[in-house]
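check this:
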Amino acid sequence: MSAEQAQSPLPPGLDLLWGRRERGKRGPRPGLSASAIVEAAIRVADAEGLEAVSMARVAHELGFTTMSLYRHVASKDELLQLMWNGSAVGAESLVLEGKDWRAKLRMWSVVQWGMLERHPWITQMPMAAPPMAPNSLHFVERGLAALDETSLTDAERIRVIGLISSYTLSEARMAHDAARAVKAAMEAGQAAEPGPEPGPGPESGPATGPAAGPLPTYESLLRELIDEETYPRLYRLAWSGPEQLNDECAEFLWGLDRVLDGVQVLIDRAGEDR
């Protein structure tokens, strides 16, 4: 039995990503490819959100019929897998810079945060299982390599990678959900309270009504809602709290450093035990 015959079948989507899908009897439409479909789907998602992605919408973007896409991509679920992999293009050539594991792993997480900022629709993706696409695994491999110099076991290293990745994804999802809420409120305010027509000049902007202005911050809402006697600690936070509470990136980095502090404790204990 050859090595190819001994390979286990892969689930739909992964078989295409890993080059194990047999070509069907009906050949693919000339001028169209799976990579072109993925690129178009990512453009749509970047511009309009994941909810805008459909086989019909992507087909329209490319100027082909919807049925033409199905000769390359079997379903929308498969397309989502391909999009996830496509969002991590370049992971195989990523070089983590830093003098030690902490600096490299911090950069690894910041790179992931940047990818989620460029493609916020990733935070809306279903995550029933860990990513198994080639580019995703390249990214995981780079994270594991950052821990080579430590005394952690392989199992501990993959847990550290999973922990940091989950934290980054969670923070990005909250930031994205907040941005979507602000956008929806702004659009609703503009629709309900149309403002005056914009005048000429570089400072002109879209017509906005009273409800379309900046949404209140966490601190400003606390100041509006709470009193010092009932909520003394929150009151103190609202009136003297640091401004960076509204800086999503600063908050993310603060939490990331605390997670890395915990990893350092784990490494120190592992060194003592081994």
Observations:
- The mean pLDDT is 82.
- The two ends are 43 Å apart (CA to CA).
